[in-house]
Amino acid sequence: MQLTETELLxxxxxxxxxxKIASQFDDKISIHTVEGxxxxxxxxxxxxxxxxxxxxxxxxxxxxxxxxxxxxMEELLGQDFIRISRSYLINFKHLKAVExxxxxxxxxRCGDFKVPLSRNYLKNLYKRMEEDK
Length: 133
Hints:
Strand content: 35-45%
Radius of gyration: 17 Å
Helix content: 25-40%
Structural class: alpha+beta
Largest sheet: 5 strands, antiparallel
Strand order of the largest sheet: 5-4-3-7-6
Oligomer: single chain
Number of strands: 10
Shape: globular
């Protein structure tokens, strides 16, 4: 049985339950890559790296390149993604740890990837970690 958004809103008992169910419908997004359009799930993305006018989207299997500013991608992906530096967005659901490194300084570990973390964005990350406890 296929429900519309209005029917879903009527049948749910709380706003949290509605948000949880609605996010499952909204999980797949279409992204215009250099090779063409790809349909991917938000949960497949580990992090996004900005390379001047292009973005490199990193997933477990393979990454791809998108021509789009980082702030537009941040708006498209929503609340699950958090900016950790001027050049990086991470999927908060894949965040395992925040580490220090002698060479790179602060790092966010997303899956098996280590992503550089800026001190300017550290407060936002810690705030988000406190909210999700």
